[in-house]
Each structure stands twice: as structure tokens, then as C-alpha cells.
Amino acid sequence: MFKISEFSKISQVSVKTLRYYDQLNLLKPDFTDKHTGYRYYSADQMLQLNRILAYKELGFSLDQIRQMLDEQIPIEQIRGMFRVKQNEILSILDREQARLARIKDRLSFIENEGTNLTRHDVILKEVEPQLVMSYRQRASLSQIPELFRQLDSQLSSSAPSSLTQMVLWHGCDECDDDIDIEVARVLPQELTSRPPFIVKQLPQVLLMATLVHHCRTTAPCTASTELALWIERNGYRMIENEPRREICLPHDKSIDPEAYIAEVQIAVVKA
């Protein structure tokens, strides 16, 4: 048997918390001396305390925990609950890491305000019609690789994975943090659509303002800003309802799997 102060040291839970658990009938002392009022705990109660702390980590209230202890939930079910919580936390971490990367990039843009951003050559060219299979979703920048994985899984049985990757960026008046994104693969021949994976032909564009740049899938780049400045300064305007295209170009991804080289394409006409 251990005094409450000793049990506190072993369990690394404060005496105040142990007393509070006693008041709530959550973790009663194994023995209480009637004459002195001293509380004593057994080593076996460490197992119950560990369950209480585990349930707290999962976000359950103390009332819910008391009910769960009464129900004697099997260890396999607890393990499953922790896996779900672990996946939730990992998802939050991924989103926050992507958010941190965007913050750093935005800060870099702000720090470079007033400097010459047009570091890349802009080329005007005609783009022929292109047959693609695409998958369109409202998603974040960080989800683009997953959208391509789903598209490629659909294509794996009928087309090679070496087909050119393309991202179409649509306007979205109702989107908040997410973006209306359409990922696509350029097809060498006609295939059957299997919704939500659609086979279609992108229209011919007589005048595309294009720019080749290096970037990462999880972060914004200066390419669009550079292209916008060029379009405005050279007397052009964007064609309405024509999505911005981004063509991924082949390169060695062994150094940084998230890095890529792409050609940004914006359909324009002379203003």
C-alpha cells in the first residue's frame, strides 16, 4: 500500500488531482484510515489510473470516463480508439505544417514587395486541344498529391503512369480555405469516363501566357504573381472562365519528392 503522497510520486499525478478523482468516485483509495483520514492506494490502482489518463488524452470528460470504467471496455477497443485519435492528430499536424510553409512563403512575398519579381521569361504561344482524364475537388494545396494518387489508381489499368500531369485551377466564389482544383493526366487515346473521373478535351487556346518555374506541391509560388505582372504591364487580360493551367514537367524527384518543375499557363487576349 502507498500513501497518497507516495502514489502521487509514482504515478506523476498530483495529490490535488488524486483527491479530486476520489471526490468524483473516479478513483477511490484502496483504503482510508478512519482515525487519521490518510488515503492509501494499491499498486493495482495504477492500471485504473492509466486508463483514466488515457481516456483524458482521447478527449473524454470525467463523467464519460467514469461510465467507461464501469463498462470495463476491452483493451482492443481502447487501442482502436487511440489509433483513430492518432490519425486525427497526424492530420492536424500535416495541415499545420502546410500552413506554416504557406506563412513563410507569404512573408517572403511581403519582404520582397517593391523588388523585381519578373525573374522568369514569359512566352506567348498557342496551345492545341488536349484529351485528358481529370478529377475535380474542393481541396487544399497539400491534398494535390493525394488527388493525383486517386486519379492514377483509376488510370493504372488502362494508361501508363508516365502521362503528363496537369492541374487546372478554377475560380470558386464559395470556397474558404480550400480551392476548386482539377488534377488531370493528358491521354494519348480516348478512354471511358468513370465518374468522378472524367475524360474530356480541353479546348484550343490561341494565346497562352506561359512561364516555367520551380516550386513545391505544398506551398504557393511567385510564378502566378510574376505572370500577373507581365500580363498587366504588357496590355493583356485573362480570358474569363478559362482555368489557369499548370503542366508538370519531368525532373528528378529523388532529392525532394514534393518539389516540381511546372509551366504555368494563363489564357489571354490583347486588352
Automatic annotation (TrEMBL):
Superkingdom to which the source organism belongs: Bacteria
Cited SUPFAM superfamilies: Putative DNA-binding domain
Database matches in Gene3D superfamilies: 1.10.1660.10, Regulatory factor, effector binding domain
Organism: Paenibacillus lutimineralis
Gene Ontology MF terms: DNA binding; DNA-binding transcription factor activity
Statement: the UniProt record of this protein carries the keyword Ribonucleoprotein: no
SMART domains assigned: HTH_MERR
Protein name: MerR family transcriptional regulator
InterPro entries reported in the protein's UniProt record: DNA-bd_dom_put_sf, MerR-type_HTH_dom, MerR_fam, Reg_factor_effector_dom_sf
Keyword DNA-binding: yes
Boundaries of every HTH merR-type domain copy: 1-71
Keyword terms, alphabetized: DNA-binding
Pfam family, one: MerR_1
